[in-house]
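Quick start: read one record
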Amino acid sequence: MDPALSNKVQVLVFACVIMLALLNTEKYYVLVGLWGVIGSIVCPLIVTVLPGSFFYYVLKEQEVEKKAWKVYGVLYSVMGLVLLPVFLTLSTKNLFSTTQTTIKNE
């Protein structure tokens, strides 16, 4: 990416994070929902999809004759992709089913 464009994108992302932080009031927890959805997507990707893909490509570069090991890497990645919608559904369900308690000053 062109450095001039990259710097503009970095400033834009930083400004969006600052705006979301300012909008994160006690009544509307904007960042809690955002990080909940991001965490439910990224965690399964890091735990299952990336190691399986890495394992597959390392074996492919080394030209390992055992095809079963390559298949295990692919199956591990596919398992992560199958679990991804489950984790996303559970986190969004948890996000929208929480109840908020209000404190009344008397």
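Residues 26-96 form one domain.
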